[in-house]
Amino acid sequence: MKPRAQTHRILPIIALLAMASLTACGSGTSSAPPPASQAPTTPTTLRMINNNGHRLAFHVTPGRRPTIVLDAGGGEDSSEWKDIVPKLHAATGSEIITYDRAGMGASDEVPGPWNVQHAVDDLETGLKTLGATSNIILVSHSQAGEIATYFARANPQQLSGAVLVDASLPPLYTNQEISRLVAATKPQLDAAKQNKSSKANRQLIALAESYVPMHRAYHKVTWPTSVPATVIVSEKTPFDGSPTDAQRWRDAATAFAAAGPNRTLITAKGSSHEIPKDRPALILQEIEKLASHT
């Protein structure tokens, strides 16, 4: 697992072009395996799935429905959920699926600008191949909130609900906020372009190339009213060093939660943007609530 500092280095554009200088870099995290007491009772299987000429790594822990799909934040791969998966499986008995988006973890890189519709297609293809096409709870952190929103729009009948974990949500992306984020991260992007041999830098550049038009379009996208959503917003947000942007992030979560029925807003008190690491028990609690009603 990459050092935490590198995660924060590429978080700004991947997770929504937040300024690296505004985001407090965390200390390194241990790559040691979880204690034996947390080991999954059912083995997790790696499935490599082909889609449009590239391979995607899906990790499946068998179980009953609902199927719980965990989608990592920007700059992260499926290992973001490694401590949560065994606990979630033990608590719910559900099938648990995590995966690496294209260019992350064990999945192939895809050349060209990042395209959210392609990311949605990768997820749709993977779940269809695995036979998970109904009674799904989608759990999405940060950038994955964008994939979740488009997935839900296209496949509302497949979802029993979603837990959006400090997710990138449409109300944030006014023209003014997009301009602020692009300007704030220009020095970081320029530096990345000087070293395209780095996989992380290539991913950063790909995301930046499509960022403005993609997020102008995303600002207009709505969540389907038929899909319940629990919105967990961090107290510190990705913009811990910028009160203006932090408030806009929290306001976007509030506006999203208020815009439709069956939506709940929860604040992760004291948490940074990395809620899966800071407040995993809160995420587990909210997933279990949804699972108990399906």
UniProtKB/TrEMBL annotation:
Pfam families: Abhydrolase_6. Residues 1-26 form the signal peptide. SUPFAM superfamilies: alpha/beta-Hydrolases (SSF53474). Residues 68-281 form the AB hydrolase-1 domain. Keywords: Hydrolase, Signal. The keyword Signal applies. One of its GO terms (molecular function) is hydrolase activity. PANTHER family: HYDROLASE, PUTATIVE (AFU_ORTHOLOGUE AFUA_2G14860)-RELATED, MONOACYLGLYCEROL LIPASE. This is Alpha/beta hydrolase. It comes from Actinomadura meridiana. The lineage of its organism: Bacteria, Bacillati, Actinomycetota, Actinomycetes, Streptosporangiales.
